Amino acid sequence: MSELRLMKGNEALAEAAIRAGVDAYYGYPITPQSEVMEYLMAANPEKTTGMVVLQAESEVSSINMVYGAAGAGKMAMTSSSSPGVSLMQEGISYIAGAELPCVVVNVVRGGPGLGTIQPSQADYFQTVKGGGHGDYKLITLAPASVQEMSDFMRLAFELAFKYRNPAMILSDGAIGQMMEKVELFDPIPRRTDEEVAQQCPWATTGRKRGTQKRVITSLRLVASVQEEFNIKLQKKYKQIQENEVRCEMIGCEDAQFVIVAYGSSARTSMKAVELARKSGLRAGLLRPQTLWPFPTKELRSLAERGVQGFLSVEMSAGQMVEDVRLAVNGRSRVEHFGRMGGVIASPLDIFEALKQFAAGEKKLF
Amino acid sequence: MELEDIIKEENIVFKKTKLLNDKPLSYCPGCGHGTVHRILMETIEELGIDEQTIGIAPVGCAVMAYEFMEIDMQEAAHGRAPALATGIKRVYPNKYVFTYQGDGDLAAIGTAETMHCCNRGENILIIFINNGIYGMTGGQMAPTTLEGAKTSTSPYGRDVSTMGYPIRITELIAQLPAVRYVTRQSVHTPAAVRKAKAAIKKAFEYQAEGKQGTCFIEFLSNCNSGWKMSAVQANKWMEENTFKYYVPGDIKDNFKLLKNPVVEL
Amino acid sequence: MAKVRGAVVIDKEKCKGCGLCVETCKFQVLQLSQQVNLKGYNPAFMVNPQNCTGCTNCAVICPDAVITVYRAKENE
Lengths: 365, 265, 76
Hints:
The complex is a heterotrimer.
Chain A: E1 3-8, H1 9-19, E2 24-27, H2 34-43, E3 52-55, H3 59-71, E4 76-80, H4 82-97, E5 102-108, H5 124-128, E6 139-141, H6 146-163, E7 166-172, H7 173-177, E8 179-184, H8 193-199, E9 215-216, H9 223-243, E10 247-250, E11 257-260, H10 263-278, E12 283-288, E13 290-292, H11 296-305, E14 309-314, H12 320-328, E15 333-338, H13 347-358
Parallel strand pairs in A: 2-3, 2-4, 4-5, 5-7, 6-7, 11-12, 11-14, 14-15
Antiparallel strand pairs in A: 1-8, 6-13, 10-12
Chain B: H1 3-6, E1 12-14, H2 32-47, E2 53-57, H3 65-68, E3 72-75, H4 81-91, E4 96-102, H5 103-109, H6 111-119, E5 125-130, E6 133-134, E7 140-141, H7 160-163, H8 169-174, E8 179-186, H9 190-208, E9 214-220, H10 224-227, H11 231-245, E10 249-253, E11 256-257
Parallel strand pairs in B: 2-3, 2-4, 4-5, 5-9, 8-9
Antiparallel strand pairs in B: 6-7, 8-10, 10-11
Chain C: E1 3-10, H1 20-24, E2 30-32, E3 44-46, H2 57-61, E4 67-74
Antiparallel strand pairs in C: 1-4, 2-3
């Protein structure tokens, strides 16, 4: 039976991991996401579902533990916050290069450097444009509620295994720390070793005699072989872009101005849209639930339909706005409004920015 | 008796293990890597555990180890093999897991991963090839390069006052309570190879017990290209020089320290 | 008394001519060839096959696992 509970976003995510039948969590503490591992350690799922929970010596190590378990076909995940996720970039690149399914959670805080421990969305570029070295993409889900922290955990694994690709849940300190009602999904049993071997014939589970050995690697020394692999990756990415875009549109049908925002920013923007509507300004909200693949087509069709302007509201200096611009491609005005360093823009701030934007202002902060 | 009478299938007393394939090894002539690959695969075959074994290759000369070993393998980022091994072993506690790492991989960039893997007593085997140099990248100084030794990044010899001392990481690891078996072996003579193989066998037998406790085997190896010697000279040089600083033999067995490492600074 | 005789077969094309087997053999069975293989190495070969006892030391030291060793009892 699904179950209603009042939980922190980080806790809901951890509980969802157990319920999703995850095999292993490898992590390292960092604010504002330490509750993920704390919750898992306290829940001790090793005794119930058999899920492994291990505190590693660093984020570098935890992502590589994920690599090992994922390479052996298991559902493995880690979570961290911005500085820790920076440390994981090497491993994430290798995981993408070895085409392994896994889930990485980033409960983003303000940067650069050690930055702050307050919520931020300044890791957008790192997440959707690469982060590590080489041409690769992460399937990126952006939860805007505690409910989605739970739901996206299961979805992230589904997509990761469907495409043999790492998936990132890009949350933020506010979503991770806030408490809300959450409807937890029914537990899914962990796959048995036999099921893993059957479903993941590529996984290193021990070579049976008379069969081909399996090798998990991202090394292809011959340039033409590497290129061939890159082409294959790009084809896969194209398929993901065609099939897996998810977004929510509120009041966009008749909107003259559309706010584009995800995560915490989408919540405050939602209120700003209401304020705008009350004041007679026809505003709408497009909330990407997948940041990669990005809802490019959806934005383009809104622009083609005659939306006059798109305001990208982010807790950053303006990162997603570049993707909004690319999608709109000059058809309408596009600007960014946001706060940085862990400061959340209030609905009034956003409403004010939207009014100025509608009036033709360019410099919004 | 003619050669044809001797060279018959039924008279074979030594042939290459099936777990090493027929690809020519990518190592320089006379390099110890090939020998360690072989005795590792021979042991796995003799124990009959090939269907349950997962190996981790490092970055370094052995980066392509999975090309030659006919078992399931994963390729790690530089230094991260013990983390991969941990990740695998925790979700497959009944499978055999080993890492294969060089001195740069294990004792420089992967020190944290190695020490903490051993400190948790992951029930795996770590194979550590110490040839005192970065072979793959062309002969740079390794953490284990001996004092005074000339390499491409210590062209006037390793100056310990600025470059630090050659690290006896094996002795450090032996101090960790969760480490079960630590030994330093070599593959420079047939007798040494046979002893080294027995050490690998012991480590896998310990692993079979399924208990906490890491097994750690260091192999002193020549890097004759890096040392700019012939293979025969390099093995001789190793015996005369390397063995004085990195003394071969068992250091710890079944959680008991057999000798206290002597550190002469 | 039956005398033990040995022989080795060396994969000429895979041998890298490192010479460790030549050095190891106590009975001077092996030597490096004056000729080169396709890779340009001077492979080892049995120069004194009559001395071979099939002790396997050469195969045990060979880093490239290119030596197969045979041993037979000579019936007199």
